[in-house]
């Protein structure tokens, strides 16, 4: 009997360890769509493909390889693009925009993993093909991970650091067994990894910029390009994935062109003339007043307002803490208080904006107005002593000025904080003990940023701080941000409902010295590293929410960013020839699902 019982026990243990292939994986909980789903709920599955669209962007391009450090920020849009779509390259899985973080089959038809997420296995779709007709193989997947480890840019270059074993399984499978550095998000991050064709890439020259159209597995191929001016993609008539559920209703144009402009004003003029089909507007004054041209008045141009269910994110002036002048948290806090948001909002934006008080404002993940509960305090442990008590108890709010641009009460708070950091006003200048004035440069990249920087500069002058402003062209801006060569810049940190590994590139100590990452502030705090680890390892929704809130509190308390503003809406103007689905997903509009009505 004992032998039978032991045999039965081992049988149960063995069966529990066997992973069953599934059609999708979610960060928390289960995928919302069943295994037999036909398409995502926010597409038009009956749309007819055809026609064309012209996008416009500000900047330039000198490269078609989006996976290397060199010219990373000047790679042609559309190659591997969260906004316009991954037109040429594809990942193993496709993200749903209607769920916080859920992935469904793409190059990989099914996925296998265990409850502890100690491994993940991607089973490739046997139908997956490259644009030259060759089959996508497990060898391609393994090659991609190894190539980007050796020649790629962060974060792709670091993925195999989390793997103890990578192996081909059967004819179509690739299994990754993770080491202790991995976390519960790691399998999903691997699902979003780009797959490259082993047979069509020279590994020796991969880290060099190129304008040679590549072989990809995506729905489009590069048709033509004018370096720095435009790139045109044409639909691949033999695209292997056009009928799989995660791609139904997407990639609806026969031709996609991305045109480049030196300034946004020039881009908008091109849109007004009808040369550009879509204009993504983020300026409330512009949105309210700039659409009095003939095409808009006649109805040829349509203005759409979308209300996504997303956190606010954080737009702000970023202090580069690699610079000694910004190493002191009191300096950063004092300089932050000197900015008069109420004056800027009233005089520059007609009062359209809301002040941002949290990296995840407008969501359950935000710490704003929410006292830390027992779960959070337990997660924080001694780290809570490094958090502003008002932020910890939920009572903190950025001070409101009288809107004069010279609110003496708030400016006195700023001066007092700078005094704690060793600065005093000497002869009308805010100076240190050696008489050296507190001075820094704000690097901007367009007139809108410059306008806001001038407002900040004016406020700083009232307390004796010298802020110079330098507006640079796109190429110089990208080069300098890649190498962290600036004192202060303006940056937008987007926030999702499932923050994860992208936080490592933004705020981990390890990212501080890695060129090409989003570590714009240069954070170097082991406490932040600990809290990032907490949110990456959270299993339950409750633990995840608590971990993000505690992380939000420490970021706010550290004053790496001078918070600016946000709007709860998305604004898009389009030529009426461009149609869109009636249903909008959780994450807002999805350009990949729109279409040309003239082809219907």
Q: Could you explain how this protein is built, in words?
A:
- It is a single chain.
- With 600 residues, this protein is of the alpha+beta class.
- The protein has 16 helices and 27 strands.
- The chain has a 5-stranded mixed sheet with strand order 21-20-22-16-23. A 4-stranded mixed sheet has the order 2-13-12-11.
- Helix 7 runs antiparallel to helix 11 and helix 15 (526-537) packs antiparallel against helix 16.
- The termini are far apart.
- The relative contact order is 0.15.
- The model is unreliable at 1-17 (pLDDT under 50).
Search tags:
alpha+beta; 27 strands; disordered N terminus; about 600 residues; globular; 4-stranded mixed beta sheet
Helicity, as a percent range: 25-40%
**Spatial strand sequence of the major β-sheet:** 21-20-22-16-23
Classification by helices and strands = alpha+beta
**How many strands, what sense, and barrel or not for the largest sheet?**
5 strands, mixed
Distance between the termini: 71 Å
Bin the strand percentage.
15-25%
Q: Which regions have little confidence, pLDDT < 50, spanning 5+ residues?
A: 1-17
